[in-house]
Amino acid sequence: MESELPQSFWTAYNLIIWAIVIIQIVAYWKIYLKASQPGWASIIPIYNIIILLMIIKKPWWWIFLLLIPIVNIVFNIMILHALSKSFGEDTGFTVGLVLLPFIFLPVLAFGKFQYIGAGVQQTNSNHPPMTPPQPPQTPPQTPQPPADQNLNQ
Fold it and tell me: Please, are residues 92 and 125 in contact by the beta-carbon 8 Å criterion?
């Protein structure tokens, strides 16, 4: 009795995997373009990480931290969080990027998200940032020349 899966299963499995890979490549290409970087940089090994670190404004030497087991998981999450912040999104979007990247990367790439740069404080992308109230502006008063009192005499 043979316990192998049928060939059609493996064909379908490979097609699904290849579709996800192509969608990821196209999504990263578009994300790089939104961040004013060349799209082709997203498909060059190592260089794509350097450009991604530039997009999120992190130092280039983080590449070495991505080579350390366990540490690389933490830094990948930090990179994805910085990427979502760079497009004005919050921690919830980062969770989506970590757990379902094949859905959230295309959403980031093809959605109406704008690159605003790393380190920008924005609590919710659906609402404008809060600014402190400004006092009302009054026009400056020009001094009046003194009235001549000797005109009636």
Answer: no
